[in-house]
Design goal:
The chain is mainly beta. It has a domain of about 45 residues. Helix content is about 0%, strand content about 20%. The protein has no helices and 3 strands. Strands 1-2-3 form a 3-stranded antiparallel beta sheet, with no helix packed on it. A hairpin with a 5-residue loop joins strand 2 and strand 3. The structure holds zinc ion. The site of zinc ion has 8 residues, from loops.
């Protein structure tokens, strides 16, 4: 039983009952709201690289 997470609900009707389906790609799951039949897709988002300043640096990596 999950006790330390917030319950997710449909943003349209507020229902909390869904049926899960495989979607058009193997990496994507479709969640079908059983209240209003809205469909949400659960899928991984590719990681993005970020460039940040180091505390002791005068500049950071950039494109000229
Ligand atoms: Zn709904």
């Amino acid at each position: 039983m999950i006790t330390d997470a917030k319950l997710m609900r449909c943003g349209g009707c507020g229902a909390d009952v869904f049926k899960l389906f495989t979607a058009d790609r193997q990496a994507r799951i479709a969640a079908d709201c059983q209240g209003c039949k809205s469909v949400s897709y659960i899928e991984p988002v590719p990681a993005r690289l970020g460039i940040a300043w180091d505390d002791d640096s005068l500049g950071r990596l950039t494109v000229f």
